[in-house]
Write a structure and sequence with these properties.
Blueprint (H helix, E strand, L loop, with lengths): L11 E3 L6 E3 L1 E3 L11 H13 L4 E2 L9 H9 L9 E6 L4 H15 L4 E6 L7 H5 L5 H10 L3 E7 L4 H13 L6 E5 L10 H4 L1 H7 L2 E5 L6 H4 L5 H10 L4 E4 L4 H12 L6 H15 L6 H4 L5 H4 L9 H8 L1
Parallel strand pairs: 3-4, 3-10, 4-5, 5-6, 6-7, 7-8, 8-9, 9-10
Antiparallel strand pairs: 1-2
Helix pairs in contact: 1-2, 2-3, 3-5, 10-11
């Protein structure tokens, strides 16, 4: 992001120890490639969001078979790329798969450098070990950073906070501190397998930028009839998040996100407690956070080939 972009209706925050200043609301990329969102609408959503002061753009190599990145790349033409902090994610666990996916993302996004690239869907305890193997994905991202293809490195996941803590432990053993971590933070997370309780304090202590996602759990939380969309966003923004990423599939939903930003004031401890009290019963067993309790949201589980090959030396040990 080479231009200083601000808007009076959008709060801005520092992204951890990177020092980057980004909008407290980020635009999710997955929705941009959905079947009911045509290309003209997706471009309009992205450009309107930027014009209204949203600078953080989320995406992933695997979203909608690449359509989300392709559309965002088109939307960021004509000077818009310079106004945003651009993030995408890669699924590859091997060095070769990660490098290939990163290069594909660069082409789709029509840029020579992505501001932040994250290891996507850290769901399994073996994922960190594969990523930090000498033939693993992190080696590819570090080389890409040296080559100027990316600036910062992070990881994401939605399954279990203990897996996030394990990823941080394995990274530390390899003398790596991530720039960002993305995870679910919402009014129900606090009651069940809580990222906010277990992981968030660690990230704050280490100065890692916190990217909140699933503030409405893909709309499932709203179906509980316990809280409103604006309350969901305000709750997540009241946590020590750098960015709260929200999916937008219509101009109406974009307006809602912009309204949440415009009206945001940090919730008091009492207000936070009252919201959590409303959701406690519904949240008790993860019924509205299916990304934690089912495989429905686990795209790398249904597409294991995206992860790439296991290290050759490990295969030799097994076969030998």
């Amino acid at each position: 992001m080479s231009e200083t972009v601000t808007h009076p209706d959008i709060p801005y925050r520092v992204l951890g120890r990177t020092g980057e200043r980004v909008s407290a609301i980020g635009l999710g990329g997955w929705h941009l490639g959905l079947k009911h969102v045509d290309e003209p609408l997706s471009l309009r959503i992205v450009r309107t969001a930027i014009d209204r002061g949203i600078t953080f753009m989320d995406n992933s190599w695997d979203y909608n078979e690449g359509q989300s990145e392709l559309r965002m790349g088109k939307a960021l033409r004509d000077g818009y790329r310079e106004k945003v902090f651009l993030m995408t994610k890669i699924d590859g666990r091997s060095k070769r798969a990660a490098a290939q996916q990163l290069d594909e993302s660069l082409r789709r996004l029509q840029t020579d450098r992505i501001d932040l690239v994250q290891h996507h869907e850290i769901l399994r305890y073996e994922d960190p070990h594969r990523i930090f193997d000498e033939e693993g994905a992190n080696a590819a991202l570090v080389e890409a950073r040296v080559a100027g293809k990316l600036r910062y490195i992070g990881f994401t996941g939605h399954k279990d906070p203990r897996v996030h803590l394990h990823m941080l432990d394995v990274a530390r053993a390899h003398k790596v501190t991530f720039d960002t971590v993305q995870m679910p933070l919402n009014v129900m997370d606090a009651h069940y397998r809580s990222f906010g309780e277990l992981v968030l304090p660690v990230l704050v202590e280490q100065g890692i930028g916190v990217l909140g996602m699933k503030s409405m759990a893909a709309g499932l939380i709203l179906k509980s009839k316990t809280v409103t969309a604006i309350q969901c966003l305000h709750y997540a923004m009241s946590l020590p998040t750098s960015v709260v990423i929200t999916g937008v599939d219509s101009m109406k939903i974009l307006k809602q996100a912009l309204e949440a930003a415009r009206t945001f004031r940090p919730l008091s401890p009492g207000e936070m407690e009252r919201l959590l009290a409303k959701t406690e019963k519904a949240a008790a067993h993860g019924a509205y956070e299916l990304f934690k309790t089912t495989s429905i949201f686990d795209s790398t589980a249904t597409n294991p080939d995206w992860l790439g090959e296991e290290p050759e030396r490990l295969q030799e040990i097994v076969e030998g």
